[in-house]
């Protein structure tokens, strides 16, 4: 039967199942191990985790206790998971009162894996997982049609729980003019000033807007101090009505996370052991209808002028998410950096809906050197904040393990993560999380060597969840790391799963727990995402398109006679340049910048995707600040990417040195007409004397291995 079959009988069956679940007692959809009706095993069993990986299995066992129905982490009305464990009003934490799309997607994916027999556990039987899946999927379909929660088939990124209803997120910032329109010029400005003094607003956009600060002492019960003059029922209600408006904010990444998770859930239910079960068939059909109904929304988020997806869309105000540049110009946020947690979902969205590949091609990235303990540099993909979850994702599923370039690149990243943690005694990886500094949640936790940002990064708050994804890349290495750090890692365990991580500065546990992180740890550990997505891609006839996306480029010798080599300096510094015996030599005292441009013949471009770029050189001096950049032809149909593809390099003083860099499989490396090697000197003149003895790109042999 086709995955998109609209068989009415199957749909009716799904509705009947959902009604059965909806009218049962709240806890029945998430039944525990003592349910004799189902008669299922209650032990842990993970078929993709070898028995000798004892520490990963024990970590998974503890993480699974998070979904024990006794903990009520799942909303019984919607079937959605709460944002997290902590409900601490005194600390301003209300993680049980809302959820997010990424968490919903991870929960649905986990339920499908349990139902398919990939994760038997004592808390949810296979039948219970199917029932829970039916409820969550039915709720998604309802919410997708609710204009208070969705637009163009896409959902608001956060939803609040209010009894049996879901609510869209609260307004995050508000325009001053709305107070003037409501209360008049004089009173509107006076109320605005009072809100600033009270601390409920933080002025932005040159005073035209205010960011709403919902902290302790915020709300209708606290109209005192500067707000005391407005503490009458009418004006108090009007002010809170403006501040606490519910909006429909559509964020591309969160929706793409959900879409890809649903596809993987469908793939799990296509496992031969369950694919023909009527409830599994009906659920696959319902999830595919939900995915198909998102098509218009994703098309709306694609910006043909920049060739990228926009970051998000405020459907309430009908304006793309962005910021004011301080000069009155609205700048729309773009999904224009490739190495982040949305890389896989973005690629999947392009393939699934037949959207322009430009959205991937115009997502730039950086590669940077990481200094190993022995002093060698290893070149690796860089994330904006150097965070493990940005580098590895919350899940890997776009068949990266079958693509030579992605596999090698990801293995390098796991090596770096484990090397850094081992050298610094960290019982986990550095990744976006709660930091242990009060209730601070931050993305600025990462490794500086492989970060793009210059902002200071926290290296004292390792967490566990990225170890799940890392395990799917390098299982033996991660098992070894867990064994070595088990004394501290096991102290994070609780009856509801492991806490977020460690505060190395204080030597204490960080007592926070989020659904997305905990489920990412489980899903990565059970290691099924690639197999499940492969079934989905095959069923939707998309595997060939993915193979084309990953196609290896063409072998290029940049020192070949037909290619031009152009020396240059920005400030016209004198250059000694020669190209004897095919070996270019560049010598200059550079002020500012200079370098060599390797230019392909006129009218010719090449793909440098899915292969290895290597340079053999001799250098009379150490060159600490070199950059290799990749440029497209002037007549390329796409605008230049906002973030160029660059390799930041360090060339040691040596008679004979080699730099070898694995370039990922991505259309961002298609249509290259010039590669430039630039040397930079920001302050004092820098002497450069470099001979390039070999410079070539060698593609891997396959896009996707069997």
SSE layout:
Blueprint: H1 8-23, H2 54-64, E1 87-88, E2 93-94, E3 98-100, H3 101-115, H4 126-144, E4 150-151, E5 154-155, E6 158-162, E7 165-167, E8 173-175, H5 176-183, H6 185-198, E9 201-204, E10 209-212, H7 233-243, E11 249-251, H8 252-269, H9 278-292, H10 295-301, E12 302-303, E13 308-309, E14 312-314, E15 319-320, E16 322-324, E17 330-332, H11 343-353, H12 358-361, E18 366-371, E19 377-382, H13 388-392, H14 404-423, E20 429-430, E21 433-434, E22 441-442, E23 462-463, H15 466-473, H16 475-484, H17 486-489, E24 501-503, E25 508-510, H18 515-526, H19 529-539, H20 543-549, E26 556-557, E27 564-569, E28 575-580, E29 583-599, E30 611-619, E31 623-632, E32 646-651, E33 654-663, E34 672-699
Parallel strand pairs: 18-32
Antiparallel strand pairs: 1-2, 3-6, 4-5, 6-7, 8-10, 9-10, 11-14, 12-13, 14-15, 16-17, 18-19, 20-23, 21-22, 24-25, 26-34, 27-29, 28-29, 29-34, 30-33, 30-34, 31-32, 31-34
Tell me what the structure shows.
The structure is a single chain. The protein is α+β, with helices and mostly antiparallel strands and 706 residues long. 32% of the residues lie in helices and 24% in strands. It contains 20 helices and 34 strands. The strands form 11 sheets. Strands 18, 19, 26, 27, 28, 29, 30, 31, 32, 33 and 34 form an 11-stranded mixed beta sheet that branches. It has a 3-stranded antiparallel beta sheet with strand order 3-6-7. Strand 6 (158-162) and strand 7 (165-167) form a beta hairpin. Helix 4 (126-144) runs parallel beside helix 9 (278-292). The radius of gyration is 27 Å and the shape is globular. Mean pLDDT is 92; it is low at 1-41.
């Amino acid at each position: 039967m086709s995955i998109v079959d609209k068989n009415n009988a199957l749909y009716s069956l799904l509705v009947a199942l959902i009604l059965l679940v909806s009218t049962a007692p709240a806890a029945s959809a998430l039944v525990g191990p003592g349910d004799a009706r189902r008669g299922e095993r209650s032990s842990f069993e993970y078929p993709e985790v070898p028995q000798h990986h004892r520490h990963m299995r024990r970590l998974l066992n503890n993480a699974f206790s998070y979904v024990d129905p006794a903990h009520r982490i799942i909303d019984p009305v919607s079937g959605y998971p709460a944002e997290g464990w902590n409900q601490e009003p005194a600390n301003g934490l209300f993680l049980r009162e809302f959820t997010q799309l990424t968490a919903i997607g991870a929960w649905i994916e986990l339920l499908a894996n349990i139902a398919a027999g990939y994760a038997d556990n004592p808390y949810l039987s296979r039948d219970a997982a199917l029932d829970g899946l039916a409820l969550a999927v039915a709720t998604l379909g309802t919410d997708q049609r609710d204009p208070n929660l969705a637009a163009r088939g896409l959902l608001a990124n956060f939803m609040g729980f209010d009894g049996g209803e879901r609510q869209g997120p609260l307004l995050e910032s508000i325009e001053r003019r709305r107070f003037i329109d409501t209360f008049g010029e004089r009173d509107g400005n006076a109320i605005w000033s009072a809100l600033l003094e009270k601390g409920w607003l933080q002025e932005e956009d040159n005073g035209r807007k205010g960011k709403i600060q919902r902290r302790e002492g915020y709300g209708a019960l606290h109209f005192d101090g500067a707000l005391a003059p407005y503490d009458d029922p009418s004006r108090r209600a009007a002010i809170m009505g403006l501040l606490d408006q519910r909006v429909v904010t559509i964020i591309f990444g969160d929706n793409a996370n959900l879409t890809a998770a649903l596809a993987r859930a469908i793939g799990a239910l296509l496992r031969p052991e369950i694919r023909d079960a009527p409830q599994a068939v009906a659920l696959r059909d319902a999830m595919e209808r939900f995915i198909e109904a998102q098509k218009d929304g994703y098309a709306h988020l694609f910006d043909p002028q920049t060739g990228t997806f926009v970051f998000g869309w405020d459907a309430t105000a009908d304006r793309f998410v962005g910021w004011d540049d301080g000069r009155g110009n609205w700048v729309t946020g773009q999904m224009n950096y490739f190495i982040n947690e949305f890389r896989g979902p973005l690629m999947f969205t392009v393939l699934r809906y037949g959207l322009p590949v430009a959205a991937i091609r115009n997502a730039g990235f950086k590669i940077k050197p990481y200094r190993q303990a022995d002093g060698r540099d290893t070149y690796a993909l860089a994330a904006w904040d150097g965070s493990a979850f940005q580098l590895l994702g919350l899940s890997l599923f776009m068949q990266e393990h079958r693509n030579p370039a992605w596999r090698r690149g990801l293995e390098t990243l796991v090596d770096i993560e484990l090397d850094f943690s081992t050298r610094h005694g960290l019982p986990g990886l550095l990744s976006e999380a709660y930091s242990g500094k009060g209730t601070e949640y931050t993305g600025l936790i990462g490794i500086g060597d492989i970060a793009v940002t210059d902002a200071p990064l926290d290296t004292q708050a390792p967490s566990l969840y990225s170890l799940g994804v890392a395990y799917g890349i390098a299982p033996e290495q991660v098992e070894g790391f867990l064994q070595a750090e088990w004394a501290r890692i096991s102290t994070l365990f609780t009856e509801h799963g492991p806490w977020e991580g460690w505060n190395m500065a204080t030597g204490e546990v960080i007592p926070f727990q989020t659904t997305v992180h905990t489920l990412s740890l489980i899903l990565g550990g059970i290691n099924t995402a690639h197999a499940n997505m492969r079934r989905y891609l095959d069923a939707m006839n998309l595997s060939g398109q993915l193979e084309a996306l990953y196609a290896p480029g063409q072998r290029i010798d940049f020192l070949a006679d037909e290619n031009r080599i152009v020396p240059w300096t920005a400030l016209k510094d004198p250059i000694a340049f020669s190209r004897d015996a095919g070996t270019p030599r560049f010598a200059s005292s550079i002020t500012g910048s200079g370098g060599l441009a390797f230019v392909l013949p006129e009218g010719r471009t090449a793909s440098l995707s899915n292969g290895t770029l290597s340079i053999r050189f001799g250098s009379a001096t150490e060159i600490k600040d070199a950059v290799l950049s990749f440029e497209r032809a002037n007549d390329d149909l796409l605008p230049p990417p906002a973030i160029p593809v660059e390799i930041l390099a360090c060339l040691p003083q040596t008679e004979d040195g080699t730099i070898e860099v694995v370039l990922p499989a991505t259309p961002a490396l298609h249509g290259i007409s010039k590669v430039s090697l630039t040397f930079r000197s920001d302050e004092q003149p820098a002497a450069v004397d470099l001979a390039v003895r070999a410079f070539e790109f060698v593609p891997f042999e396959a896009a996707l291995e069997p």
